[in-house]
Amino acid sequence: MLRRLLFRLLVTFCCLLLPLPAASAQQVVQAESGSGSWLIGLPPGSRTPPRTIYRSPQLQGPMPTNDWWSSLAWMPLSEAMYPHPLAVQTVPAGLQIAYPGPSITANQAAIFGHIGGPGSDLILGHSEVTSFPEATVDSFSDWFVTARMQREQHSLLLTFGHGSPYVFAVCAGGYPTVSFKTPPRIETTDAPPQVLVVSVLNRRYALIAPAGSRWNGQGTTRLSTDTAGKNWLTIAVLPDESPATLQLLLQHAAAHVVDSQVTWEYLPQENRVRTEFRITTTAREGTEHDTLMCLYPHQWRFTESRFTDLQYASIRGPLKVLQGHQFETLHALPPLLPALPLLSRQSRSDIVPLLQADLAIPPQLHGDTYWLGKQLGKWSVLMPLAEQAAQPELAAECQRRIRTVLEDFLTAHGTDGNMKRPAESLFAWDPVWHSLIGLPASYGSDDQLNDHHFHYGYFLHAAAQLALRDREWGLRWKQSLLMLVRDIASADRADPMFPFLRCFDPWAGHSWASGHARFGDGNNNESSSEALNAWFGILLLGEALQDQQLHDLGAWMLAVEAAAIDDYWFDVRDELCPPSWPASVVTMVWGGKGANATWFSDNPEEVHGINFLPVTSASFYLGRHPGYPQRNFNALVQENAARDRNDGRRFDRWADIMWMYQALSDPAEAAQAWHSRPADFQPETGNSQAATFAWISLFQQLGTLDCSDSADTPWTVSFQNENEHTSLIWNLSDVPRTVRFQNTQTVECPPRTLKVFTRPR
């Protein structure tokens, strides 16, 4: 503990010494224990994120990035932000507030729930300021943020967050105002005089001032209130015209949110994760401390909390409303294995020439963190296949490649002892944004802090596979590996080097890819499958290093994001997307839309496949809802046929990924397509012929997935065909264990062994 404390103090001291606007590295920091090093500061000539963070002077420490509100920290005035059910944006006149729910539309391109044009629906402003120069981050918590807008002594503090139908304002040096493009209709209600209910653009809002306040400006485009010596205002969006709804929102309007915190726990006996969401409020008036929370589908499906009758519309589906300050969800882990299995003598024989061909290609041992990461991912899948096929030389070659790349990247100085250059392989910590940047970078992972979880997930999966075979290596490099984990998902709010859960949004249930979110549609996340690959890497690394906290962090994010993927990318139950949505999948989830497109292609194989790859032993979640994989694959074929004017099955991109997905529902057809491939067939860059064969042959041998039962271990997958039910259980521990299924069945598993348990159906 003392060494860890001293190390933290050293890092903090080094950061204080650094001139923050500089991009040049000041020192190489060696891991306090074991191997590895990284730079403090970026090497000369590197591309850097902006040197300015828009935050209030008293707010110090790591600034979150890759969040739904990140543009607030990256720009003088933010882009649109989407704390559903609301949409907000800081503009010169104040905070633009809109409720997109009533105007959600859809076409082939996307499901749209945009904030609307300038000034829609209303702007919360200040009586003494017509134009604010900027908005800064004044404070934040796990899913709420407070923006400060100030000119001289006149200021607005504006608090908003995920799942809240309220915007809370504190005004100094004047009074709050509410402006509209056209005069709103003032409704007649039983509300007290300090409350105005307005109707604008088919939306209803309650403007709630302190008791004794007076509203002025009725009949004009600008309402103002004398807050009777108090300084707060709450704006609430009303989802319907019921008087009871208005009273419920008024009841909680003075309970201003000041903190939001998530905690999680892995439940090993159930192989589920429990998430607790807790909100803290301060009562601006009265004694009410509870608030209203609008839950997303992936939350309300998996909680036992009682809901009110209120619902809000959103592009994620209906939001159900809880009254209180705390609730819990329970999510099951999807089926997982630490590696793809080879179950028959024939498959272990047939795979050998494929392994040889895959590894005959000269390896890429240098490159940027994404494309080299994909190579690490490929070798991580090939290594256990080579071991099972009794090919020790091929397995050793995979280990050599993985070890070479990881140790190179995790060392900031060359063999000559000098600091590496940006074009060489290294990680550098940026003291401005408190982020670990891998160099060479790609897709804005340096100057925009994009996609770190996509990139580093491949590194963590590879390190986990190596540590499973060489725990001493894993422990020696653990501190350096944890730098990658902490960058994308630090579990410590007091971490001096990294923000809490950078890439994972605990309320939204999924990750965000853009570091800055400087888009009119908010932040986005395209490859949900690569995000899950990162959380799998953390889980498996925790298992390999016998680090329960790391294991549980990965398990939690993996289970929750898998549920979010089911709902928001795939809509597996076919009940959330609007009826007017003609496309089959949401490829990219945004704050303000769900898009049927990628950043790089409109090819149906890639539109679908970007949320399949990498296909690994963590990908069984893709098939856990019976009937859905067939529906998705049929849509892919139809879209491909319309584009290429053929039968839709002549895949010209990522055919191996398409066949692997097809095997979830029709392994015989997938096997036939695989065996009919051309002689010069090349798999997707991060995939291999051996992995494609192993995946398809597994389903061909055992049938489709059966997720009707669960066990007290993450490392089990069950299948069924017409005749039998088969469970695969991988005991990664060094001792025998008894695995218990929820159906009371028990299976004895030898140490470090894959157990195959078959019973008649």
Can you give keywords for this protein?
single chain; 761 residues; Beta-galactosidase, Chain A, domain 5; Glycosyltransferase; eight-stranded antiparallel β-sheet; six-stranded antiparallel β-sheet; disordered N terminus
Please provide a written account of the structure.
The protein contains 18 helices and 37 strands. It is an alpha+beta fold. It has 3 domains: 71-332, Golgi alpha-mannosidase II, domain 4 (Beta-galactosidase, Chain A, domain 5), CATH 2.70.98.30; 345-409 and 441-692, Alpha/alpha barrel (Glycosyltransferase); 706-761. A hairpin with a 3-residue loop joins strand 5 and strand 6 (110-112). Helix 9 (452-469) packs parallel to helix 12. It is globular and about 85 Å long.
